[in-house]
Amino acid sequence: MTQAVQDASATEAKAKTVVLSVDAMGGDKGPATVVAGLARFLADTPDAKAILHGPEAELAPLVTKRRIGDRVTIRDARDVVKMTDKPSQVLRSGKETSMWSTIDAVKQGEADVAVSCGNTGALMAMSMLQLRRAEGVKRPAIACLWPSRNPSGFNVMLDVGADIRAEADDLLAFAMMGASYARNGLGLPTPRVGLLNVGTEEHKGRAELKEAQDLIVRAAPAGAFDYVGFVEGGDLPSDRVDVIVTDGFTGNIALKTGEGTATLISTLLKEAFNKTFLSRIAALLAMTSLMRLRRRIDPRRVNGGVFLGLNKTVIKSHGSADETGVAAALSLAYKLGASGLSERVAARIASAVVLAQDGLTEDAENRARAKEEDPQ
Amino acid sequence: MTQAVQDASATEAKAKTVVLSVDAMGGDKGPATVVAGLARFLADTPDAKAILHGPEAELAPLVTKRRIGDRVTIRDARDVVKMTDKPSQVLRSGKETSMWSTIDAVKQGEADVAVSCGNTGALMAMSMLQLRRAEGVKRPAIACLWPSRNPSGFNVMLDVGADIRAEADDLLAFAMMGASYARNGLGLPTPRVGLLNVGTEEHKGRAELKEAQDLIVRAAPAGAFDYVGFVEGGDLPSDRVDVIVTDGFTGNIALKTGEGTATLISTLLKEAFNKTFLSRIAALLAMTSLMRLRRRIDPRRVNGGVFLGLNKTVIKSHGSADETGVAAALSLAYKLGASGLSERVAARIASAVVLAQDGLTEDAENRARAKEEDPQ
Hints:
The structure is a homodimer.
Chain A: H1 3-15, E1 18-23, H2 31-44, E2 48-54, H3 56-66, E3 72-76, H4 87-93, H5 98-107, E4 113-116, H6 120-131, E5 141-147, E6 154-158, H7 168-185, E7 192-196, H8 207-223, E8 226-231, E9 243-245, H9 248-274, H10 277-285, H11 287-297, E10 305-308, E11 313-316, H12 323-338, H13 341-358, H14 362-373
């Protein structure tokens, strides 16, 4: 398929209605905030609909107030997964929760993508149980967008916390999944993939990373990505790479360190501008520029960890997301639903498994490529 | 010993001359920058002297030009460790290098602390070979200062790259060493220690971290620190904790991620202020406040990774350090040399080993405490 034909089919895909399955419960700010975010998202996205999960008596007035009843179906669920619930306990007794219902709608094919602000561990456990891992995936991963110097403004990093460990073959699967996400979510035809390590030299770092590197180098042609080698923490916000692959322990710590550093700097910046009368005037004059910067690095804009490696796409929104954050997570869900990400990722991983079995022939590469481009 | 007596002996310790052993070579900017930084440091610190290592013919004119010949002894060393040299190769053939000579002066007792801008791996390998690990230390660690919301403006994090692995007992040693560093470097009598993990809940994270936590909890009274529990990436710049303990792989990635994020934001901030005529005027008005913020988060101010767990203290300055950066690393070295850090750390670790053998009795705690407070 040529690039032009691919672009045309992407446009066509966007024209169909995308249905999002939205968990109204479990966020720190309650269902009113989720419904407000949903209303804002729907106003911006005419060809989207939603199934909203939670206690009907609580949700119906919120939906009526926002006047989105014609595009939102409420599905009654009386229980809520709490932030303190353990995943194992939720799997045993959580079938009446809004979270379970949210994933179920995707499983049944009624919706394209699931979105929840709730407990990450519980959401991953329920998603794995209901949606199952894609063929060839041992460990699913959570991918996040990271503000960067790249033209799109973002890099993809995974895993940021689905699992605390990853073997070499998991890191290979993450590379394939991350590249598909960057292709469909950021519109990059051939994403550049890097493996996070403590040095870019060949002799540095953990042995399992060298093994993973060998696997990723071999898979790059079939995965339709460029492998750029080891990258360091300092490269996360750079334009050297589009997809950063790491285990969930390291990725989670890097993600939270980056967020913490950004928060510290913006607090100090605010204090600096409040210090003197002159600096307060300066802040007024620079308002537009500062707001532009703020939007650029606003964590709410990049809200949404994407669960990859399952048979359907699930998005975890920040528990503390406000209306803007919820709307951002829903927009991301819409984009990935419209591009058919989950089918593409599944095809890509399955092809990697086929390749590993067949050995890497030119023919196999072409088959794999054709399979992702036309998942039907 | 009472707090007052301790304070008095600290003042007394500061009155004696501290001799720094300084590697003039190996930095990206060459020996002229190191000598310039040394001159600035000496001007600010009347009771310090230095032994400067490198090719005498090259260094003598630089020292004369800066008029610091009366306080600086040049020690001729013809070879230089390059950034690309492998540690193993340097250990075999590096005895004529300025780096070897720098560490040797500390080993021979001619200087109190060694400072080098050179190759980290080579510096650690040579330091371990010449200075030997302190009793009870299996893996030395590199500690860095991290800008934070704490009153001192900094937290201590270790290990940030000495070794890519750490077992539970290494993490215990890091906690002891980091607490001693915070006590002597930041002046905190009872530092708060946290263990870096992906969640603060007891059931989250890697099994070896839970094991390390048990060891650290038991050692806290003898180590004269408070253990605050698991901390997350977002806590690194916070005021919840003073010392963050982690393995060298995770610590290095967190350090570089934090630096990269800070660099991205300051670049974007500069761009925002250059965008319009109005914002340029605003930048002028806010100059003082912005410079204050810049100084606060300037990585050059926190220059200097401290090698802990050896019988003497070695400081690794950033390879790209400029005059300000070199002076900052030398000031840190002076402070640690004046406080007798290496002796205190060694005593502290040795006491932990004793405690582990004896079991934790009130008596043993007191012995350990007395030993650190009065290392002679």
